[in-house]
Amino acid sequence: MSAAAPGPAATGVFALVAQPASDFALPAAVGGNVRLSEYLGQPVVLSFWSSRCSLCAAQLSALNRYYGTYRSAGLIVLAVSVEDDPQRAIDYARAHATSYPLLLDRAKSVGRAYGIERLPTTVLIDRSGVVRYVHSDDRAGDASYVAQIRALLDDKPGAQ
Amino acid sequence: MNTMSRLLRMLLPLILISLHDPALAADPAAPAASAQAAAAPAAPAAAADAGAATRSLDEQIQGLKKDVVDLNKDLFVLEEELLFPANTQVAVFVSMDVGDFFALDSITLKIDNREVGDYLYTPREVAALLKGGVQRLYLGNLKSGEHELVAFFNGKGPNERSYRRAANIRFEKGVGAKYLELKITDHQRAQQPEFEIKDWE
């Protein structure tokens, strides 16, 4: 399932489309804490995942590819683990060297704020901090993902 | 009200522009007309006029943007005055000096044994504090009387070891606003960080 504009009955994470993305600060599995609002002015791909979710691994790996390609253009990728046991996320981060930060949402407060109901869920946020697209399935390999990421990158900083 | 009159003053030029400027008017024939005009050989005088009109419009837009920013600032101040009146207002600030013996990760704040704040610091925020920045960590309301503030500091201490310390202060809330400052400093002789809560009388 994916959404680019909120329908009349948009619920959960889909209700966030066209709304300002909720700010948060989370510790990273490796490195310091990360606050979403520090990336205002850059497009952000926010991916919610868990090491127990088999589709999430493919999702994270696809996002790693996109990050490698579009990082120099200003793309930010943040993967939020909604794991019960944060150690599993840390182990995953060590085993799979992702080039973007893996964040630990121990209290699941960010997952709740974004209304996450299934994994993986990906939220694409534009340069002005507004949620533009939401995907609640594993289609990171889909060409539409790339098109949406490119659309976010094509927005001029401060144009909105 | 002052804010209302500013809002009206701000909107008035926008309405006038939309009424008088053909470029902004919702006329469906306008694009076709402008295309025809573009096709015709443009006289230098007409081009100069168009340039001046564009500049004038730009100036008006910049003026409007400035008004919006000013209005937003006024509304923010008004909101704070309404939500946190001076007679009940309590504000807690954080400052950090040197930081050789302590790398700040988070601060948890309790007032009268009730958690009122839990803030996670990013490396960029810590760098700003180390440069002399002061952060307002908490703004709230308290009734007059005696209260207790406890702050828990989490981070990395000397030798990169996890470090958790608490500091507390009992303070009297009077009729005016109360300002408290959490100060993190390095104690050079003890080679340890120091945590202090200062009451701005």
Describe the protein.
The complex is a heterodimer of chains A (160) and B (201). Chain A is an alpha/beta fold. In chain A, 28% of the residues lie in helices and 21% in strands. Chain A has 4 helices and 8 strands; from the N terminus they run E-E-E-E-H-E-H-E-H-E-E-H. In chain A, helix 1 links the parallel strand 4 (44-49) and strand 5. The longest helix of chain A is centred in the middle third of the chain and has 17 residues, at 54-70. The radius of gyration of chain A is 14 Å and the shape is globular. The two termini of chain A are 27 Å apart. In chain A, 39% of the residues are buried. By secondary structure, chain B is of the alpha+beta class. Chain B has helices at 2-20, 30-39, 44-83, 123-130; strands spanning 89-96, 103-111, 114-120, 135-141, 145-156, 162-173, 178-187, 192-200. In chain B, the strands form 2 sheets. Chain B has a 4-stranded mixed sheet. In chain B, strands 3-2-5-6 form a 4-stranded antiparallel sheet, with no helix packed on it. In chain B, helix 1 runs antiparallel to helix 3. Chains A and B meet through strand 2 and strand 3 of A and helix 4 of B.
